[in-house]
Automatic annotation (TrEMBL):
Subcellular localization, as worded in the UniProt entry: Membrane
Name of the featured protein: Contactin associated protein like 2b
Organism: Eptatretus burgeri
Family: Belongs to the neurexin family.
Cross-referenced CDD domains: EGF_CA, LamG
Domain F5/8 type C: 1-51
Residue stretches spanning the membrane: 1148-1173
Membrane topology: Single-pass type I membrane protein
Positions of region (Disordered): 1116-1139, 1182-1219
Record PROSITE patterns: EGF_3 (PS50026), FA58C_3 (PS50022), FIBRINOGEN_C_2 (PS51406), LAM_G_DOMAIN (PS50025)
Disulfide bonds: C386-C413, C799-C826
Amino acid sequence: MQRKEFIGNANSDGVVRHDLAQPLVTRFLRLAPSAAPHDRRIGLRIALHGCTYESDVIHFDGRSSLALRFPQKSVRSLKDVLRLRFKAMGADGTLLHGEGHQGDRLTLELRQGRLHLHVSLGSSQFLVGDGHTEVTVGNLLDDLHWHAISLHRHGRSLNLSLDRHAHHLRTNGDFEHLDLDYQLMFGGILSPGKTGSSKKSFHGCLESVHYNGINVLDLVQRGKPSIHVIGNMTFGCTEPRLSPVTFPASGAWLGLPASPGNDWFWVELQFRAWDSNGLLLLAPGHNFGTGMELRLVDGTVWANVTQHHKDGLLLNTGSGLGNGQWHTVEVLLRRNFASLMVDGDEPSSVHSMSSLEITTGDVVYLGGCPPAVGSCWALGPTFLGCLRSVQLNHQLAGLGLLGNGSGVQRDMCSIVDRCFPNYCEHGGQCSQTWNSFSCHCQGTGYSGQTCHDPVYERSCEAYKHAGRTSRPYLIDVDGSGPLAPVPVYCNMTEDGVWTELAHNGSHRDIEVHGSSREQPFTAYFSYGASAAQLAALLTAAQSCQQILIYRCRHSRLLNTPGGLPFAWWVGRGGERQLYWGGSPPGVQRCACGLRRNCTSPYHQCNCDSDSEDWQQDDGLLSYKEHLPVMQLVAMDTNRPSSMARISLGPLRCHGDRVFWNAALFTSRSAYLLYPSLRGETSFDVAFYFKTSAPGGIFLESLGLHSFLRLQLTSPWEVTFSFDLGNGPVEVRVRCPHPLTDNHWHSVRAERNLREAWLRVDTLPHRVVPAPPHGHTRLLLSSQLFVGASASGQDGFLGCLRSLTLNGAALDLEGRAKVTAGVHPGCTGHCSSYGSLCRNGGLCMERYDGYACDCKHTPYDGPFCTREVGAFFEAGTWVRFSLPALHSTTSPPQPRVLLEGQEELPAQPGQMAGLGDESWGLPDEDGSNIKVWRTGGSLEESISFSFSTKRAPSVLIYVTTRVGSNIAIVLQTNGSLQVRYQLGGPDEGLVVGSGGRSLADGQPHAVNITRSYSQLFLQLDHYPTTRHHFPAGSSLTLPPPTAIYLGQVEDSLAVDTAVRDLGRAGFSGCLSRVQFGHAAPLKAALRTPHAPGVTVHGRLLLSSCGAFPMTVPPLSTTRSPWTANPGADGSVGMPAGQPASSGGSADSAFVGGVIAAVVFIILALLVLIARYLLRHKGTYHTREVKPADTPEQSAGTANMAEAQPVFPDSLDDSKKEYFI
């Protein structure tokens, strides 16, 4: 499209003529003066000249019709073409109707101002009602303007165009031919016996009616016998004398003269509006303060009559009248009588016999009133809409000529349907007022002004990036594109993210009996997603797989070698596949045939041996183009004793080709080229970037008079700018922190008919509303330039990732491979997302993202947040030996590592772990943790959580090479005690938790850190306390040799006090046990048979000891830690004597009273809860019933019945596994 300016005259009376190269067909013409002499005012006189328009036009009066009769009794067509133009003077009426005796039908009708198309290509006894198709388009088609219809049908493909707005669809049913009997009717239904979707005939004009090459109106004009006419029809189009008036803005009004002094008043008018509130008519009375007000209130008509020194009268009727349709209101007022009726509906009209006296004034106001008349302004908004056919006291008012007013448009109704075409996307419901429209997006899965923004992430990888855990999600595979969200299960594992899509046969076997080649068994699988959704999901994934299992007894599968297969499956492409799980496409064999280990060496599948014993062929299908399995056919289970069971797993996809698709721009003149952006009415752009450069253009596209640009304009600011042809618009977001920090930042921008907005990271949206008038379409003609401007200037230096336009992903890596100055991929994800790796997990760089390495932590999971814990039965203990297998440099604190990268030496001042050299176990499920042992240690850290109901017991015991040890025990009264013995027998420290019992069945967290002579301890949520070793004590912990959990080995020489406390063994839960960089409990659970790991008894994987506590601490003001006092606050530990708790007698007495009161209250609450639960009813659980006591559990031989016994406050959903 080229822009053309028409130059006018430069003098006062000259005329300049311009001829158009192409004819102009338009309903409206807007004049936009662009320039004028600086010293003169613009004056304009314009005349449009064109050719005489000639066409065949016929007028229907609402009681007439015509029929085009066929030469044969019936006509069958595979292709139909219909074109016509119409001008409707009523909201309902039949434009065209034809039908056949086999149920075929073709109907075009108006219903409430909307065009309805009904097509049926026939039906059968097997497909009842499936062949009917109905389409509804347009609105306000009774606006006295010409509208053009074009209908093209070829078989089941149908194209319907109304005023150049096209709709493409396929008809329902299986038939393709249209069979019509006798005739095709226009304007109405010819005979009353014929069926039709509308009983009303058309009132209006038809022009240029062509059906399958036949000019119907030309045949009418020539009086051909194939045309049959009923009623009165005239050639030409008679314009109705309605004289409508438009009230386009608030404050518009029209005053009409009225007959004063009458004691009765009657008015009838027609209105149409989108707004549900507004003044229709105000008739002031002869006396001040009297009169009648007719108002639209919430879509209902209200008539309010005020009287002089009397009570007023209020009538209302109707509902939903602000729907854009013409409605008729009639009001009659006379002495002691009033009536109000809407749309001639007598049953719903309202009447009143109340006392009423009126005297009419000399004027009636429509739509509003002058500012001098304040009553209509005080009671509500003025009217926005159209009025016509106003009659006052049975006299038709000439609205186009009579009366004075302000702001009205006479002889026209300029109401506009802002919901056609419907700019609400994804099924959003459109509603409108006179000036604007709005979209209701509830239940669509989208949000925003036009329901364009997806509510859900587009992949499981994006949910993981947001820190989500494994659970079912909805994913929108094409973002803001046309595809609806898909329900999936996102499985976040340490190895990556798996997207799992279940089907209707998941988690069960399908048994097959009695099938043969003549009567095959077919299983159909549905995934709750359309073919387009499945294709998009598979395309975005890096790899996909699906396990397929065939269990057989005397039932053959592929009939190898060389035979006709007895089973096959069909993928989404609809093609039959003759290979089985574990085998590549095109090879008719099973996995055992590739491995050459089938039951029979003469066959390529186990089931092809036709054995009487149960056999199985299984494996993974991994060719994405064939997945998922949609059908499965089996045909060899009709012989005696033959049977088959088929199991198909869910579709599992791994990786995201969109989320991590990135490119690195290293030259300011380099850019990537993509096809032109198609976003006339709405578009969105989303991507991630990271850079250290102060500015650059992310993307740009140009048009003849428009452009689109996204740019980093400064280190703190991103700008989104565009021009629709009526001036540039800029949306700017300024960030409080620099965006040039070489971390990933997200950018999302959108433009629609209502607004334009820009968002950077998690900052609030910056929104610029769209102007009420002006251009609405963004027309871009150039290619899309990514990374620089169209001229190659102001280029971006850095990384762009996950670039999508209108939900469609752009392949940055593919284009970067063939573009100079741009490189595919971009590393450094851990600099932005490394904080998602918690609890000391290391962020590992990957080409397509990052992963959290939890090897050196007592946690696992994708973010190292899931505690690893176990339930210890009485007598169960774990020994974790620390042999010197090899030496490496001491590892640093958690940091970013690349896969395969060696660990760097510890930095100065960094905690060195347990020594200068380290040992490790093989890399296997977190057992390759590192502990330093050669030179001893001056610093240690221990952390864990536990829960138990038994005391005394040993929780953790650390042995060393030369007799020093660390013991963490529960004393007889349930209090916690930490015992450090360094060097000689008198060199150590004992710290206890006072008299408070921790053997209460609740989880408790313990954190211990020693640095030289200082010991820091924290229990649960209490403040950390600091303790000091006695002066002159040895501060070096010799190299540790083993870590014991739950109990100390009998053969080990330990302190007598510790031996006595741990004699009965620990019964309860331990979780997230960590000693330095060692995770002994995790190693025992993950690799129980690894060298250096000894498990005595039964160890059950459980999270019952996980923190936080279910009961808050009693007090946070008083520390639970008390030490045996010494001269300097430290405690020397005499050999063989347990430490005693310190503290004053008064505080002990007060603490005892508080503890007793709290204990009584808790006991009462427990008794009440047990009583209520016992009478509440039964419940179902998958857990095995626990033993009565821990002692009984210890003596039970069946592992499956051993379960921990804990209070009801613990989570019943905890899963436990046996080792």
